[in-house]
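On clarity, I found the account of how folds are encoded harder to follow than it need be. For illustration, here is how one protein appears when written out as sequence plus structure tokens.
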Amino acid sequence: MARVKGAIVVDEEGCKGCGVCVPACPTDVILLAEKVNGKGYHYAYMENPDVCTGCSNCAIVCPDGVITVYRAKVTA
């Protein structure tokens, strides 16, 4: 049976660190980085990439549209 494996890519320089994506993630994949981007914001990143399902909730709620979601079927 195939399952879906997801991944996100965050435009780190475009992210303003609002954190709206963090609670929107049902699998607790996203956190805000300790480091800051060129504008001084703590950007979002994938803390637990292995559990991402590619649900796209983070991209939907992102006010700046800096999150891209990828999904792939994994057969096991």
User: Anything to note?
Assistant: The two ends are 7 Å apart (CA to CA). Helices lie at 21-24, 57-61. The mean pLDDT is 94. The first helix runs from residue 21 to 24.
